[in-house]
Write a structure and sequence with these properties.
It is found in: Plastid, Chloroplast outer membrane. A 14-stranded antiparallel β-sheet has the order 13-14-15-16-17-18-19-20-21-22-23-24-25-26, sandwiched between helices. Strands 6-7-5-8-9-10 form a six-stranded mixed β-sheet, covered by helices on one side. Strands 1-2 form a two-stranded antiparallel sheet. The protein is an alpha+beta fold and about 800 residues long. The longest helix is centred in the middle third of the chain and has 43 residues. It has 20 helices and 26 strands. The structure holds guanosine-5'-triphosphate and magnesium ion (MG).
Length: about 800
Amino acid sequence: MGSLKDWISSQLVSMSLVSSRPLSGSDSFFREEPSHEGFDGQGAAHSNTSLTPPILPDTSPSVGSDQENQSNPSRQHVVVENSDQLRNGSDKKKMDPLVRIDDLQVKFLRLILRLGLSQNNLLVAKVLYRIHLATLIRAEESDLKRVNLRSDRARAVAAEQEASGQPEMDFSLRILVLGKTGVGKSATINSIFDQTKTVTNAFRPGTDHIREVVGTINGIRVTIIDTPGFLPSCTGNFRRNKKIMLSVKRFIRKCPPDIVLFFERLDLINASYNDFSLLKLITEVFGPAIWFNTILVMTHSSSALPEGPDGYPVSYESYVRQNTDMVQHYIHQAVSDSRLENPVLLVENHPQCKKNITGEKILPNGQVWKSQFLLLCLCTKVLGDVNTLMKFEDSIQLGASSATHVPSLPHLLSSLLRHRSVISPSGVDIEVDESLLSDTQEEDEYDQLPPIRILTKSQFERLTKSQKKDYLDELDYRETLYLKQQLKEEYRRQMEIKLSKEKNCASNDNSDGQQASQEAAVLLPDMEVPPSFGSDCTAHRYRCLVTGDQWIMRPVLDPHGWDNDVCFDGISLETAMQINSNIFTSVAGQMSKDKQDFSIQSECAAAYSDPSGITYTVGLDVQSAGKDTIYTFHSNTKLRKLWRNTADCGVSLTSFGNKCYIGAKLEDTISVGKRLKFVMNAGQMVGPEQVAYGGGVEATLRGRDYPVNNDNVSLTMTLLSFDKEMVLGGNLQSESRLGRNLRVSVNANLNSRKMGKICIKTSSTDHLQFSMAAAFTIFWALLRKKDVKSTSHE
Ligand SMILES: Nc1nc2c(ncn2[C@@H]2O[C@H](COP(=O)(O)OP(=O)(O)OP(=O)(O)O)[C@@H](O)[C@H]2O)c(=O)[nH]1
Ligand SMILES: [Mg+2]
């Protein structure tokens, strides 16, 4: 059962109920002995039998995906113990994992300094953030108060220790290399040490036995275990490859590596690449947990770029992304889990590889790959050690059989409390309809407008700046009124159809069939598919037609598919039907199936509106979660228009595995005028031996031009209680149009655990506005940074 703590952090950081990713490598796979830093006590108690990977809800891109450059500078917090604890005796220090995490961070920052890397480096920030998150998740309520945001102090201690060289740092890396023969494992080892430490061979397998290569880089002792390469995966080589893997497994049993490098040649990955059987064999022999500490190494990274469909070479970034995605895709298939995201390291071993002025080998994108190698190894090892210290042994496991996700009560309750508005078959929200109806005084406003002369482009150009503005404002105003009028007419038309249908039903005169057949088919926009179908046609098109209002059926595009044949492995379907004047139903779902997996997400609902104003809704939601399926049956009763008040009560029954969760909620909506709305709700979710309670108040103020412009501000306060813990949260959401070409939406939340996030989205058709938005964002980030600094000084 997920805890409230998980729920809070996922509210902040994760997209979905089941989205989780490894913090880093699994020590459970490798470690039988204490790590090289000598973490003794509880933290070093590794188990090599369990495959439980240490997993945290993830918020950031993979450690190594340097293509993704978003990071949140405000989250670069370091968890540092308070000074009392720092001064405490070594015994206590040894016992307290939080203190040891603090030490580890200082060590990590020292190494970053030693490598000459900036501490604001994206990867470093991510590692520090993940450590912070791990500490928060694992910390007890009492510990949480001790978790200070004193990043500056950790940095200062690291700088001080590194300058004085005291205390001496015993940090070492133990790395295992794996990959097919000839991909450049030995050549990479030689490049890393800048000397020929192991033999390479261009024409036949170069390495015939496992051997350790030891050296020192930037004061870090590095041991690399060079292994014989695997033979290309075909049935004849299966036994030989297995033999190599078993001997490697035997070799590392006594002294397991911190990091695994899995090698591929970047230039040899193409549409016909398929190393699934080899990856599967690695997974079987070493266990799925091997992939947690694995970095994908792509050699030959400076090779000539292939031609794109337009005859020009493709861009380096997209070439790398496409090829690494393909290898990652097959790893996902081998472990039957697509959550894994391995860091990628690009390598070029050619002696004539381009170098920068300091003589370091650089890639076509200007990156110095050797420092990137060290950084990735450091990050992987440090996160691995944090995992061990924090004991993430009860986290999610990799693999299909183990990919069972237990829904948490706070999640289920908050989704029950989420407001569901019932959509009528015409596609217009009932609430919108009502606000239109109440809008009678503006009835003829558009028709009463004086005529306007529409200017040609050249006439418009001749206007002065202020005239241009007035003219555009006037057009804007008219457009809003026109759209309002159109919406009203559409609503009236729908009502008339409804009334005439009722009459027709009475007189048994059904002309529906003819009407439907008269409706023309509409072509839906094309989907972009990988341009690899057929020899002469670069982009084969799949076209979709919509023939009636009622059914929309489309294939689902898999963005990871490498050919059109495997791109479409799902289907989505949407329909809404009026059974009679009072009953309507809607079904929306998506289903995908390939050789291994079948997944479905669907929502069906039926609503009955009583003429007295009561609406009854029943529905069934079906959702795949790993190999299991979650069924949720829900039922709602809505009492409309008791004064300006809509009351709603609902129950839900969720079945997952062999467990059942029952929930109930009460909700009341009060409208004050056309623009202000209050929603209050309270609910309860009961699971096996556990209960969660929650509720909230939401106030929404809509813009003057609603529903033509969806400007609104809403403020929500929620309270959630689960397992003797209570969390109060506040959320502010606003969407508004600032000027003609700029839309801004702001979402900010904060809870009583002092965790929160702010998200600002802007869209503009004007470059100037974009630069303003960027300037504002940077200004905001700086402000936050200052804020964090002053907090840490306190
Ligand atoms: N151009 C180029 N050549 C490379 C690169 N990496 C390796 N090579 C060459 O590829 C050949 C094979 O490299 P090795 O390092 O022996 O390959 P290996 O993976 O160790 O092979 P086994 O020991 O048989 O498993 C050598 O001639 C290397 O010089 C690279 O990044 N670019
Ligand atoms: Mg070799």
